[in-house]
Specification:
Elements (H helix, E strand, L loop, with lengths): L5 E9 L7 H10 L4 E10 L5 E4 L23 H9 L5 E9 L4 H9 L12 H9 L6
């Protein structure tokens, strides 16, 4: 089985202001075949700094994610949760998401079959790319 590039993100929600707004967009990405969810864990810190983690089916407040077609589970370790939680302040929550870029699988396979080896890759933050793009001169 060929696997496309795999990515992870930790998205924090200060003040535990977490809504289900991202669920429909995530479901749409999966349903369109753009990505495949490999694991998804929700992490929180209470007012005392205690770390809690939950899977989709463990909290009623995560019911927006019930329609997510995903192979959720088994890849995010307790060490991963601790790493993500280290960046959280008390009364803050986060989603730790691991996915495969299904859309890039043919390209990744071609790179591998041609003997290519990925030396480096990174995600450029929205703030950095927006600033760089706004500094470009207007096209004529």
């Amino acid at each position: 089985m060929t696997t496309g590039p795999v990515e992870y993100i930790v998205v924090a929600f200060p003040g535990n202001e977490f809504s289900g707004r991202i669920a429909p967009e995530l479901i749409a990405l999966v349903d369109s075949g753009t990505i495949k969810i490999l694991d998804l864990t929700f992490i929180g810190k209470d007012a005392d700094g205690n770390v809690l983690s939950f899977e989709i089916d463990e909290l009623a407040s995560l019911s927006d994610y019930a329609g997510l077609d995903a192979d959720v589970g088994g890849l995010i370790s307790p060490e991963d949760i601790a790493y993500a939680a280290a960046g959280l302040e008390p009364d803050m929550s986060a989603a730790l998401l691991l996915w495969e870029d299904v859309w890039a699988t043919p390209f990744a396979e071609a790179v591998r079959e041609s003997g290519g080896v990925l030396l480096e890759g990174a995600r450029i933050s929205h703030e950095i790319i927006e600033a760089a793009l706004s500094d470009l001169p207007l096209a004529v």
